[in-house]
Amino acid sequence: MELNYKQLGFKCGIEIHAQLEGHKLFCNCPTELREDEPHYVIKRNLRAVAGESGKVDIAAAEEMAEAKDFYYQGYYDTNCLIELDENPPNLMNTDALKVTLQVCKMLNSRIVEGVQVMRKTVVDGSNTAGFQRTALIGTDGYLDLKKTKLGIPTIILEEDACRNITEEKDRVIWSLDRLGIPLIEIGTTPDIKNPDEAKEAAEKLGMLIRSTGKAKRGLGTIRQDLNVSIKEGTRVEIKGAQDLKSIPKLIENEVIRQINLVSISKELQKRRVKELRELKISDVTNLVAHCDSKIIKQSIKAKNKILGIKLTGFKGLIGKEVQINRRLGTEFSDRAKVIAGVGGIFHSDELPAYGITLREVEILLQDLQCDANDAFVLVADKRKRAEKALSAVVERANQSILGVPKEVRKANKDNTSSYERPMPGAARMYPETDIPTLRITSEEIEAIEIPELIEDKIPKYEKLGLGSDLAKLVAKSVKAPLFDNFVAQYPKVKAAFIAEIIMTMDKMIKRQFNISINPTEEDYNILFGALSGEKIPKENVMDILKENKPVKEIIGKYSMMSDTELEKEMQKIVSEKKDLPFNALIGVVMKKLRGKASGKKISEILKKIIG
Length: 611
Prior knowledge:
Oligomer: single chain
């Protein structure tokens, strides 16, 4: 589908979330993630509370209604009572605050005079307290893109949520290891003009944060949320885009989804379909009790119920594709899964199928009193859960009449999205009473230094002789400060060679010899010092490192010969091979004395010997 984003009234803004190194935001626990067996597990049930406005947030209310049990895995040596919400929080991590202030200055933001930590109600289990601590640090900034000056209305420092381990119908297991990791959140205005510009903005914001040298690295440490709408649609937030390359396709698919949902809405209005205000749920267990559907058979065996409901005027529309391989019926199913915890739904647009015959469909249509334009939905589960699921389906069907529902969706691996929760509002925020307001003086702001940007390092490294790809690799790496130090300390060693050793040698050795190395800064210092002092030839570097031992212990056996020793050895070779031409002779000498002298030195002495 060819999309004209300007004609569609396209609007897009992004939120970028980046984890910071160091200790956690409100305690001194480390920020490492664990994969070993937890030391303990605790169980919690959470409930939503009224925010500062006195109202309970709509998203929090829905999350609480799911009534799930939450289990938290923890470790005695890397978690504390603050993460369990058994102790009040410590004061804010000042190192994380300093990094956030640097980002504010890089984005030309106005830094607030007083940092007021707020509680943001979240009862999906991702926080043990039922809220996330968050603080506004900067406002009214901007980011220069190639064609757009993009507004940055907010820069926030907050604590990251627990890490999801497994999720089932009635319970979720979380790990406490991620809870409390400092997280910078940067939000933009909805002025992004197309999907590629969204990717550009995300790349540049990520680059700015990584330029501080304090951003965590690895999958999941930087996440993007996308806010997308078209003129006839509404704002939808897509959470959890981790791969920058996926951003344009996620946005494109959401625009297509909104176009299709608007089309469905217009057709429903053309059919004069009205909102279903009264739930008329029918028990159709006996009507399908003998069908060949595995799901229905298993449900009946478990003494569950098969419940159905008529959707007036929806025939042919539930099966309409709204995104690739996702239909309106998929959206109904998403709601039922999230809100009621069921495995899915059946709907009449996809039947007969799944072991349900045409005859059984006709019986169901008759029993549910469906007319020519009507459809039905079935759910197989425990009665209360099935009723809850059908209620969620009806709510989503009613929203289809109006158009595009305002909601939060999660990014899927195929660059589509699925329902997560309603769009939250201001009702979820209220002040944190355990942490005093932190004042930031003009002197403190003035003292904050802006780090050198990664994009400025790349051309500088290219001037040092690094190729374009290697320059980018070094500039984006956490090893960039190490490279800078070595280049300054060892000017006799080529900068490109230093870059290749610290950036690529470990991968080369792993690929060629299946040896994993992890040299220390001391190892590199000894190595480059020896190269600079011409004590070892560069040909020996790989051999030294692949021994995977402290360099100081083994470097002696790789030392070069003195000129006198070298000439003596070469005189012997020349006398034995005196009939060989120079090019053949130098090959023999290089093979015999490899690693004992540089090629340049060998060539010079050989020319001297043979005259």
